[in-house]
Write a structure and sequence with these properties.
The complex is a heterodimer. By secondary structure, chain A is of the alpha/beta class. In chain A, 19% of the residues lie in helices and 27% in strands. In chain A, strand 5, helix 2 and strand 6 form a beta-alpha-beta unit. The N and C termini of chain B lie far apart (59 Å). The chains are: A alpha/beta, B alpha/beta.
Chain lengths: 141, 401
C-alpha cells in the first residue's frame, strides 16, 4: 500500500544519515562513468544509463572498476553536491568504503531483507547509518 | 577492533595528524569488516592518479607530517614537463597533478609512477602481507605471487603504508581466499590479447568474485597474466583468481575451492571472446593515434613493438605512443628499442597513465589501442581495439581494416 513504512536493520559502514528517493541498480556501479556535473549515468550498456543518481538513495550490489576512477568519480560528484544521499549495498568492498569516506556519503550493508526485494526505484528511503536503520516508504503507483 | 597501545596513540593523534588520518581510514575499514585487529604489512602500492580525490587525501597526510613506515610505491600520473612542451594542458589540471606528485614525495613514497611495481620497483614475495591497490596489481600479487592483499584503494593502501599495518580481514584470511566460481575456458588462448579478452569476459560475467579457471593448456606468460588481471579487475572486481597448475596457491580445482567446489560454472568459448571484442569497437577505418601501454608496457613488449616498427615509418597523420615506467624505458633505451620506435615516428613516455588530462588534445579523435581498459575510460571520441601487431600495422597505414 502506498505510504506503508517498513523499518529494516542494517550494518553501518560509513556513518551519517541520508534520505531521498530510491534508485535501484541490479548491476554494479562505477561512479567515474557518470557525468560529474549532472549525476547522469553515461555508461551506455548500464541498466541505469541516462538515469540521474544525484541526491538519490542508491541501492546496488557492489562497486566495480579500478580503484582510482571509482574514488575520483564519487569525490567529483560530491564536490558538485551531486553524490547520492546514501548508499545501500549487498557486497561491500574496500574501494567503495574509501570512496564513501572521502565523499562523506553514508554507506550500509547487511540489510535484514534482500534489498532488491525490500526497495524499489521511486520508494522514499531514509538511511540512518548511525542507528543501523533503513526506513522504506513504498511508492506503489 | 582491538587496538594496541601504539595503534591507539596513532588514532589519538599522538604520532602526528597525518598518521591519525591514515589510522582513522583503516579503523573505518576494519570496523566495516568486523576485523579483530591490525596486522603488519611489509610494503604497499598506492594507485596514485593525479586526480582530485587523490590530491585531497595525500595532502591531508603529507601536510599532517605523515611518512611511510614501509616501502610504498606510486602509480603513474603524467610527465608534466614533457607534456607541457607538447600540448596545451588546462592549468588547473596540471596544478593538481603537480601537487599530487609533490605530496607523495613528501610522505616518502617510492616515486615509481608505474602501474607494474610488482615487476621492478616494489616486489612482494610469496606469503608476504601487503596492501597493493591498482587493478592489475591486486590480483597479480594475490594469485601469481601468492602474497596477500585486499582490493585496496589508493587511499587505503597509502594509509596502510603510512601506518605500516592493515586491518585483518578479507583476503588476509585463508577461508576468504577460496574460489567462488568455476570458469571453463574452451577457447585456445593464443597471445596476450586473448588474455585481455578473457579478462574482459570473466570480469563482465562474474562481477565480484574469485574465479577458478580450467581448460588453459599452455602456461601463460607474465604479460598474459598482467593483461588478464588488469581487465578482469576493471570490467569486474576480481581481486584474486586461480589457474590451478599455473598460479601458486592451489594445484587443483578442489584445492582452489578449499574442497567446496562451486556449482556456478561459466563456459568461455572463442565466440564469447569474439563477441566481447566486437562490442569494444566504436569505429573502423581511419585512425588518428595509437596508444599502447595500459597497463604499462614491459621490456618484452617494448622489444616486440620495436621489432614490428624496425625500418618502418608511421603514417604522417597518426600519433603513436607507448606508456611505460622510467625503469623500463631506461633499459629499453639501452637495448636500442626506444631509438627504433622513435625513428619510426613513435614516442615512449614515462610516468604517465592513459587516463590523464595530458591527452585531452585527442579528445575529438579516433584512437586505437590494445587495451580495452584504455578504451573503457577513454578520453577520446572513438576507439578501435586490437592486438599489438594490428595496432602497428594500422599506425603505418593510417587506417584499420
Amino acid at each position: 500500500m502506498k505510504g506503508e513504512e517498513t523499518r529494516l536493520k542494517c550494518h553501518k559502514i560509513v556513518g551519517g544519515c541520508g534520505e531521498g528517493e530510491a534508485l535501484v541498480s541490479h548491476e554494479p556501479i562505477c561512479f567515474y562513468l557518470t557525468d560529474p556535473r549532472t549525476g547522469i549515468v553515461r555508461e551506455k550498456t548500464h541498466e541505469l544509463a541516462g538515469k540521474n543518481l544525484a541526491n538519490k538513495v542508491l541501492v546496488f550490489p557492489s562497486g566495480k572498476a579500478s580503484s582510482v576512477v571509482q574514488i575520483d568519480g564519487l569525490f567529483k560528484l560530491a564536490s558538485h553536491k551531486l553524490a547520492p544521499k546514501a548508499m545501500i549495498v549487498k557486497d561491500v568492498e574496500t574501494v567503495l568504503i574509501v570512496s564513501a569516506v572521502l565523499a562523506k556519503v553514508p554507506l550500509v550493508d547487511r540489510l535484514e531483507k534482500d534489498p532488491f526485494e525490500a526497495i524499489h526505484t521511486g520508494d522514499m528511503v531514509k538511511v540512518d547509518a548511525e542507528k543501523g536503520i533503513v526506513t522504506v516508504r513504498k511508492n506503489i503507483s | 577492533m582491538n587496538l594496541t597501545k601504539e595503534e591507539e596513540k596513532m588514532l589519538n593523534g599522538e604520532l602526528g595528524q597525518g598518521t591519525k588520518r591514515a589510522m582513522e581510514l583503516l579503523v573505518a575499514i576494519g570496523d566495516a569488516y568486523d576485523a579483530e585487529k591490525m596486522i603488519p604489512i611489509s610494503r604497499a602500492h598506492a594507485a596514485s592518479s593525479g586526480q582530485e580525490g587523490d590530491l585531497y587525501f595525500v595532502e591531508l597526510l603529507a601536510n599532517g607530517g605523515a611518512e611511510c613506515r614501509v616501502p610504498t610505491s606510486t602509480n603513474p600520473v603524467y610527465d608534466i614537463e614533457f607534456f607541457h612542451k607538447l600540448f596545451e594542458i588546462p592549468g588547473d589540471e596540471a596544478e593538481v597533478a603537480r601537487r599530487v606528485m609533490e605530496a607523495y614525495k613528501k610522505v616518502g613514497a617510492i616515486l615509481s609512477w608505474s602501474c607494474l611495481p610488482y615487476l621492478t620497483e616494489n616486489i612482494p614475495l610469496f606469503g608476504e602481507t601487503v596492501a597493493f591497490s591498482e587493478s592489475s596489481a591486486t590480483p597479480y600479487v594475490n594469485s601469481v605471487i601468492g602474497a596477500t592483499t585486499n582490493r585496496e584503494a589508493a587511499q587505503s593502501a597509502l594509509a596502510a603504508g603510512v601506518v605500516g599495518k592493515t586491518p585483518r580481514y578479507g583476503l588476509h584470511i585463508k577461508e576468504n581466499r577460496k574460489g567462488t566460481v568455476l570458469i571453463k575456458v574452451e577457447a585456445t588462448l593464443r597471445d596476450s590479447f586473448d588474455y585481455t579478452l578473457l579478462g574482459q569476459v570473466v570480469g563482465e560475467q562474474i562481477g565480484y568474485g574469485i574465479p577458478v579457471l580450467t581448460g588453459i593448456t599452455r602456461r601463460p606468460n607474465t604479460e598474459e597474466l598482467i593483461n588478464f588481471c588488469a581487465m578482469s579487475n576493471t570490467s569486474g572486481a576480481v581481486p584474486m583468481f586461480y589457474m590451478p597448475g599455473f598460479t601458486v596457491e592451489a594445484q587443483t580445482v578442489e584445492e582452489a575451492f578449499q574442497g567446496d567446489v562451486s556449482e556456478d560454472k561459466i563456459t568461455v568459448t572463442r565466440a564469447e571472446l569474439k563477441r566481447s571484442w566486437e562490442e569494444m569497437q566504436t569505429a573502423s577505418g581511419r585512425i588518428d593515434f595509437v596508444m599502447l601501454g595500459c597497463p604499462h608496457y614491459t621490456l618484452k613488449q617494448m622489444a616486440e613493438a620495436a621489432k614490428l616498427l624496425e625500418g618502418k615509418k608511421i603514417h604522417s597523420g597518426v600519433s603513436f605512443w607507448i606508456c611505460t615506467s622510467a625503469t623500463t624505458k631506461a633499459l629499453a633505451k639501452r637495448m636500442g628499442y626506444v631509438d627504433t620506435i622513435e625513428k619510426a615516428g613513435g614516442g615512449v613516455v614515462v610516468d604517465t597513465c592513459i587516463d590523464e588530462p595530458c591527452w585531452t588534445v585527442y579528445r575529438d579523435e579516433v584512437g586505437m589501442t590494445d587495451s580495452p581498459k584504455c578504451a573503457y575510460y577513454r578520453r577520446f571520441k572513438d576507439v578501435v581495439v586490437a592486438g599489438l601487431e594490428d595496432c602497428v600495422e594500422a599506425a603505418i597505414k593510417g587506417k584499420y581494416e
